[in-house]
Every structure is written in structure tokens, then in C-alpha cells.
TrEMBL record:
Topological type in the membrane: Single-pass type I membrane protein
Protein name, as recorded: Contactin associated protein family member 5
Domain F5/8 type C, first and last residues per copy: 1-105
Cell compartment(s), UniProt: Membrane
Cystine pairs: 857-884
Organism the protein comes from: Cynoglossus semilaevis (Tongue sole)
Gene3D superfamilies named in the record: 2.60.120.1000, 2.60.120.200, Galactose-binding domain-like, Laminin
Residue ranges occupied by any Laminin G domain in the UniProt entry: 111-292, 299-472, 719-884, 943-1129
Limits of the EGF-like domain: 474-511, 885-923
UniProt cross-references to InterPro entries, sorted A to Z: ConA-like_dom_sf (IPR013320), EGF (IPR000742), FA58C (IPR000421), Fibrinogen-like_C (IPR036056), Fibrinogen_a/b/g_C_dom (IPR002181), Galactose-bd-like_sf (IPR008979), Laminin_G (IPR001791), Neurexin-related_CASP (IPR050372)
Main location: membrane
Domain Fibrinogen C-terminal: 510-562
Amino acid sequence: MVTDQDPWIQVDLREQFEVTAVATQGRYDSWDWVSSYTLLYSDTGRAWKQYRQEDGVSRFVGNVNSEAVVQNKLSQPVRTRFLRFIPLDWNPTGWMGLRVEVYGCSYKSYVADFDGRSSLLYRFNQKSMSTVKDVISLRFKSHQAEGVLLHGEGQRGDYITLELHRGRLDLYLNLDDNRLKFRSGRVAVTVGSLLDDQHWHSVHIERFNKQVNLTVDTHTQHFQTKGEGHSLEVDYELSFGGIPLPGKPGTFLRKNFHGCMENLYYNTINIIDLAKRRKPQIHSVGNVTFSCSQPQLVACTFLSSSSSFLSLPSAAASATEGFSVRFQFRTWNPDGLLMSVPLNPEPQRLELRISGGQLRLTLHGTGQQKSEVATGLRVSDGLWHSVNLESRNLQITLTVDGELCSTTDLWEQVEARSNFYFGGCPTFDCQVRTATFQGCMRLVFINGQPVNLSHVQQGALGNYNEIQFDTCNIRDRCLPNLCEHGGRCSQTWTSFTCDCSGTGYSGATCHNSIYEASCEAYKLIGSSSGFYSIDPDGSGPLGPTQVYCNMTEERVWTVVPHNVTTPVTVQSSSLHKPYVMDFNYSATAGQLHAIVSGSEQCQQEVVYNCRKSRLFNTRDGSPLSWWLDREGEKRSYWGGFLPGVQQCSCSLEENCLDMNYFCNCDADTDTWANDTGILSYKDHLPVSQIVIGDTNRTGSQAVYHVGPLRCYGDKSIWNAASFYQESSYLYFPTLQAELSSDISFYFKTSAPSGVFLENLGLKDFIRVELSSPSVVTFSFDVGNGPAILSVKSHLPLNDRQWHYVRAERNVREASLQVDQLPPRFLEAPTDGHLRLRLSSQLFIGGTASQQRGFLGCIRTLTVNGVSFDLEERARMTPGVSSGCPGYCSGSSSLCHNRGRCIEKSNGYICDCSQSAYGGTTCNQEVSVSFDRESSVTYTFQEPFSVMQNRSSQATSVSTESSSRAREDVAFSFVTSQRPAMLLTVSTFSHQYIAVILAKNGSLQIWYHLQTDRRPDIFSPVPSNLADGRLHRIRIHRVGKNLYVQIDQDIHRKYTLSSDAELILIRSLTLGKVTRRETFNEEVMQAAAKGFVGCLSSVQFNHVAPLKAALTNRGSSLVTIRGPLVQSNCGALAESTSHILQDQAVTANKDNEQHSSGSQRDLAVIAGVVTAVVFIAVCALAVMSRLLYQQRRAQRTASSSSSIKEEHRHSMYTDYRTTELQLHNSIRDNMKEYYI
């Protein structure tokens, strides 16, 4: 054992057992024990499979001394005869010592062996069998990736087929009264993967009516059958192992199953037992035997893509000159050297490699001489592929999977010079500079002679390194699919990646929504009114939906429309035959519930115009018309009242036409009347259906209109709690975060440290804390040992200002972000534990030990898209109060457009450094007039502190395969020039982004991310934007997804050809470009023309270049060419635009009004007169106040100057300080600016 390269101990149980646990112990009275090991099992002793625990971990924890017994229970019992224990680690001061014990019970089985040309037929006692419930179970192991296990069909169109296809199990099931020949192709439900591994797999099918559960091993699919019936009707027989053709014995419609079946039960009937006893119900086709044949296909696994190799000597060639090699392999890796052989005469050599998922054969000659051919077939799909390489008659032929793929000519007759190398090779024999093969290999033949891999393992033949024999240790990392929200999974041998394009989510596992959670959130980042996609539950399961965000008022309204947008006339309806209309909203029921429950207030207007059409029966008060709430419950109140009160708004306002009735329409007059109400009870909104039942009398008519759902406020944004005792905390139910979790919140404190959040398990835990005044730490343990991420700020975080924290952990990586500092990333270990198992309550603001508690405020706590109501829990918790004191803790937006509210001892100021706007509250447009020669160039230069923070995580980031590329661009412009250059962003690697106006005045967005490809060009609208009016542009990119909004239009989505990031951003230029750039010709023309007009409020990520140009004219970061004049052109143009919009909105509203228009006109005139008088009085008051202040100006000069200085300082905070502060406002994609 000391000299064995790969030692192991093997246990033969003599017969099949169901093993449930194993235990180990060290050598008696010694320093020898094994501290960790892997477990292999086999029922033949030749082909082995590695046991993996529930989350894919293969390593078992062993002993820490020689005497204690350590037992490991198997999460899934295995039925096997042989077990093999392979030590991984042992006592470093001793040696390997291992005593083992196996726990389990005996296992009886009925086995049938199918040779690929046979089947068993179970024939019914009657012509057909019709069942409402079916239970089918079996175990199988297969030699091939294709084959039918089960089939039955009926004449009316029913069928059931269970079939292996490409190593997966497909179930076709249809219950239908119609024949299938009139229908399109069958659709399969697919479960499992790599099922052709010659090991046992269990299958269980349960069907009741149309509901079906299909389970393969531990993976289950729940689905509903196709067709209209509820019973499965099968004629004559069920076949197992194939589909025989009627009347032609030995002929089958599909490829038969080749392998063994065990314990095959159909509705409690033991099919194999009946066949073995030769019962008349069973008919055997072909050669079916009742013992499982021993497989001869023994594989080996190349474990490393850098150091694994298998060196085999060349066997004696045949009489004809040349050589041949034949083998089978399977892998997930798209690249790797598969085989190489040196040739005579020297220095020729032949290489067969996998490149881009395809096989590529290369013949290297002398010097630069080289001949190369490719197959065009994808071989990195995890399936077995056969390769036959043969040299004969000055040609080398390559055959893949039995088909001739390519031929290359030799320059002269060659022969193998020495060994054949599979994978890599020893360093003294060759130099391999690229990745080598990582996967499984079997059935190796050299010059027609089979290679006995057991001899290689025993050292009697060839040489090897980093190879595991007798097993193919392949696993499907995309089963189950750990990509969330519909992300597409792809994999290599050691990891998987998620393609999130088109899902609306981003991140390593498509966990994070790329949309804001509410219209309120869009308002806080500086957006204006328009159509937006919101994701009301963030990273939760609901997905995004499109709404209209109305930000023209003090409140931000979320408007969700439905399918009935115009008033509807109703006649001839009665209680026996009522009129019914269902309302379908632009959001799903779950999304609507999330929007309503997350808003402070919601409402929906219901207008009912009537003529001889009552809402309530005047005799008994029963409703004649009603509506259904979101749960489908019947409601008969019509606004203005609490639920259950059958009245209308006019009754509350005491202005009904007839005070004897509670609704105007109940007066039942021949003239038109109106009942309009606002439904505002949130638990009942929105309206899902309206029913009208009193328009069947002569002259009876109704016109109704149900408005869109309108909500305002976001309850979570300012939901806060204050902790003023270190031992106090809030507790919530256990965090549901097994595979992924994201935690985000804001905090402010003056304490130097404290725990924000903690949840414990038996061994696992997750914690977020302020570990020092300038460091936030995120730590967790899922069974691989504690993982710690820390973000350090160059400024203290206990400054009594709000700071943002977001921590995420998933099966691929963990991340931590604080404010706008660059995020830290930590990759999860390969083949480590995946599930975070927690059991205690979730503690907020403290710990279970009541130590290291947090002192300060926490708000907007969200976990996996669910907002926590801190205020409600704080009201009943000692040491914690709801809300948070301070000017910057309220729901009113004191600072606008990304401005940050900063507490002062006697008030607050707005930090506008991250905003493109100015003013005391960051709401003033920063506008500049350009002429043809004007330009502003902002040069990106990375602060040392940020660079240092990034360098420590460079390794983890560089290995990240899912793109974190992200840009946010926003600006406004007014021009009549075309073509024109609006904005360009260029990098040192010759990438660029350009936003131009084309010759026809249309907007064009150019993205050139890969220099070897043509740029992506997008023209969102064909209309001319060089029309002298103000236009607002918003551009947002995440990976390949590009979102563009022009003015109030909806967000248009485009897909880029690449998700590459901008590497080493050099500069951003507004207006004319004077530097020689590698632009496309059309972009160059616009760059040369420059820009004539007004640019306003330009923002690129968290940099405001136009504002920087005005406030840092002497800075080395900003270069100004030509005349540049600050103006209010943006504000003037915007005010004109708002007037036009208001007129249009007013006109639209006027067109929608009905019968009561004259009364509303009088109200409008009265309102206008009142407003004019009010404005005049206010103007006189303001003038008087100004005169009064002018008289006192001399006496208050000193105090007012200090106030003005503070206000002036707050307009452009941080821009007149240092360049370091200017650049620390960069967003989470700071790594774009450098490698």
C-alpha cells in the first residue's frame, strides 16, 4: 500500500445490499487514520461510480484520531455489492489507517437483460385497457444512450412511451379522443442526464387523471398531460424494451433498449417475475435473459486539464505501413488536446484536439509547415463519441461516430516514432502550452490491439498521471438547472455558467433584476415620467412588468392599464342574463398583488353613467350590478365607503340627486345620471370583473368606465427602525436562502461596530456587520469553512449619514457592495457544498448572544425581493423604535436626481456630486450652449485607493464568465443641426460608444465592443430629433441587453452582438471630436461636424461630465475646446415642452368627458378665476417680502453670507474639492476603467 500510487480499500458484500451508511476508524493503537475519503460503489466490481451527497459533494469527513468511530449516513441509499474507499487526507504525522463498517439491509431483485433486439410484451385480458390511475416503476442500467423502455398506444389516439434519448429519459404521454395522425409532432417531458453510464437508475411514474409525476433518481417533473381525456386507453398490450412492428417478428419501429431492467412493476404487477415464470400474459420477443450481463466497457477519467496524461507504447503495426488509433471519449470541455503522437521522420507530429467543441486534426511538418482539418461535429456535449484515426497510403483519415469526417494528405510515408499520448504528456517528452483533455476515455485500440487499462493502473503498461481508473467521473452540473429566472445553463467539466440574456435578470446565476422595484425608485435615480419595466419583488419569482410612471406631481404614481380603455355602453342585460366584462391587466395577478401591497395607497376610478339603470334594487336593497375584487369576491360598494356599505360617493358627500336614495342611478329617471367613485380599499384592488344587470327595460341604458389601477408610494423605501440598546434586536422567521440570497439595506450610525444581520444553523451561518468604523464584512459558511468578504471605505462609515449595503451569495459566487465603492467578489469552491442550511430565527440589529449589537438606524431591508416591515416589529420590541430621527429619514424626497441627503446639526444639505443636476436640492438643469467648434472631454483617471481595493480581487473577477458590463447614460439636448455628434466614449483598447444624429436627424447609437467585428448600430425611432425641441435620452446596458428611452416613450430593448465590457476607458467627449479615433466613417462625419445647440444634465454612470466642466475648468481631468457658455436653455426648453404636454393631456381628458360636461366647465372657470386671484395676492405678498428683506440686508449681511456660502457649496458639492473625491462617485462597474 505504501508504494501504490492510488491506494484504496475494497469491500465485497457477496450479494446486493441497500447501503444506508458507512463508518470509519483508524488503525488500532496507532497514529494512523484517514481524515477524508471518497466512496465508490459497483455491482460488478469493474465499472465504478463515485457517490455524491445531496449537493454534489463527494468528500466524506473521516477521523481525527485512531479510536473514535465516525459514521456518515448516505442521503440517498445505494443498492450495490462492492464498495471502495479512497483516502484523500490522513494524519500528517502518521500514515493511512482505515477500518470500515457498512450499514444496510438485504435487497431482492428481479432482473431482465435486453440485448438491443428483444422485448417483453404484457398482453391484456381484454381488447383494451382503460385506466384513470397508473403507477409504473423500474430500475435500469444502459449500455447505450438511445432505446425504448416502455410503449403502449390505443386506437383513439392515446399513447405512452418511455424512451432513452441522448442519455436523457423522455416520456411521451397523451390522453385524447382524437387520432394523432391529424396532430403535430409529439412533445416529450425530459428528466435526467448521463443515464448511459452503466449504473442503475430508478424511474417512478405516477398518473392520476391528467396530473403526472415523473421521477428519475432524485429529480422529479410535475406536469399535465396533453389531450382532452382523463383516462389512458391502451389496446392489446404494453411492450417493454422496444416497439415491435405488428406482423413482423423481430422488427422494431424504434431503437431498442440495450441493458438491464430490474423490479419492473406496472400497476403492482411484477412483469419480470411473470416473464421468468413463463406466464401466458407475457410474450417474449428475441433473447431476454434473467441475469444482468457483465459490462466490458471499463473507462478511466482524466482529472486535470493541465497535468493529466496517458502514455501508451505503440503496438506492432500491421504488414502495411502506417498506424491506427481507435477510442471513445466524453467531455463537457469545448477545448483540449485529445491525443498526440510524434512521427518519423522527425520532427513531424500529429495532434487531435477539441477546439470550440469540434474535433480538429493537425499535422505538423518541418518549420512552419502545417496541415489542418476540422470535423464540424460538436463533441463537447457529454455524450460518448468514437474516434478512429488511421494512416495509410500517404493519407490520414479521421472517422467520428462511424462517419468519415475528414482526410488529410501526408507529405511522405510516416510511422509512429514513440509513444501515443492521450491528454497531455510528460514534460520531458513534449511541451504542451494549451489545455489538455479533461473527461472520460474507454475502448482504446492501438494498431488494432486493445489496451488493458488495468495493466496501466498496475504499472505494467505505459505511464499516466492524474487519472482515475475503473470509473467515468462525469457529472451534469446543469441538472438541476441552478440558473434562475429562465437562465440557460452551459457547463464545462468543473463549472457551469448562466446565459441571462432576455430574462430581465443578471448575475452569475441570473438572480438580480436589472429593473427597479417601483416607480418611486426610478424617481430617486433621476428618471422622468414614462413607461418603465418594474420588478415589484426584485430577485423574487414574479418577473418584471411594464407600467406607466407619472412623476409630474409631488407623488409618484404607478399606473397599470387594462384591456378596456374606453367607455362601454350596455343594454339588454338582466339579473338572469347579465352583462359581464373581465379586466385583463398588463401585469399578472402576482405582480398586481406585489404592486398594491408594496404601495402606500392605491385607487381605481369607476364611472357609471345611467338612464333607467339602477345599481341597487330599491325594494330590498340587493345589488343589480356589482364588481369582483382581485380574489374574485363579489363587491357592491362603488367608492367613497368602506367595504360592505352598499352606497355611492354622492351619499357620502350628501349631494345625491334624490336624497331618498344612496346612489344617483337608483332614482331611476329617464334623464342621464352619474355615479362616479374612487375605490381605495387596497385589499380589494384591482377590479377584475364588472357585472351589470339592469338595462333590459325600455329606454334603459348604461355607460361605464373603469380606470387603470393607480398606486403611489413605496412602503419599503423609508421603512426604518432605530436601535438604541446594544442588547436589542428584531427577529424574523428563518432566512430561506439555501441556494441563493441577496440582502440589501441602508444604515446610519455613530457606533464603531455592530452586527446588522445574523442567522445561524447547526454549523452554517450568515452574517453582515460593521466590523470597524470604515469596514463592512459579509461572512457565511455553507459547509466549506467560513468565507469572508470585506469592503473598506477611505472615509468613516459611522458618520451618521445613510450608507447602502448589498450582500449576495449564490452557488457560483458571493459579492459585497457598499455605497458606490467597487464590489468585492469571492468564487465558490469547485465541488463544494452548495446549500446554506439555517435553523434559528433571523436577527436584525443584533445577535442571538445579545452581544455586538448595532446602535443606529436601518431602513429598506430587502431579502430576496421581500421587504421586511421593520417599523411594525419595532413597535413591540424593547430597545427599538420605529422610524429614524433626522431630516434625511423621511419619505419626502428632499434631494432629487440621485442627490444624497446629508444630515447637519441644524438641518441638511444635498450632495449633488453623483447627480448631473445642480442647485440646493439637485433639481436645477445644468445646461451648456455649444457651437460647431465646442467640445468637452472628460478623462477617466483611477484613484489609487480604488485601484488598490480592486487589485485584491483581481483573481476572482478575471475568472468570472458572466458579464458584469453595465453603462447608464442620460442627457437632454436641443438642436436643429444634422448630422451632429452628441456623445462619445472611447477606450485605450479601441472600443467606443457613440450617440449621434444621422443625416436625416434620427438618433443612432453605436456600440463597438469587439474590434474584430463590425459595430452594433441601433436607430430607436426614424423621426427627426433635430427639430429645435428638447429631447431626453436614457441608455442603459446590462451585458448584451440594451434599453433605450426617448422622451416619454417606452423603453425599447435591443440585443448587442457581444457582452464585452469597456476595458480601460480613456475619455468621454461631448460635441466635436478632435482626437483621431478609429470610428466608422459615418461616426467620423458626425464627429467632425460637432454639435450646435444645447446639452443639458449629462450623466455617464455616476460621472456628470458637463457639470465637471463648469465647476473644474482648471482640472486636468476636463478639457474644454471652443466657446462654452453656461445657459438655462435646457430648463427653458423643458418648460415649453411641459406646457405642450399639459395642453395635450388636457385635450385628451376633455374628449373623454360625457353628460356632466357643462357642470365641469363651470367648475373649471370658477377654479381659473380663483387661481388668478390667488396668484395676484401671492405676487403682492412676495414683492412686499422682498422690499422688507432689502431694508434689512445691511444688518443681516454676516449671517446671510454664511447661509449663501453653505447653499453655494451644496450646489456642486465635492466638485470644488479634490480630484480623488470626484472619482470616488464611480458606480459598481468601476472595473471598466482598468484591468
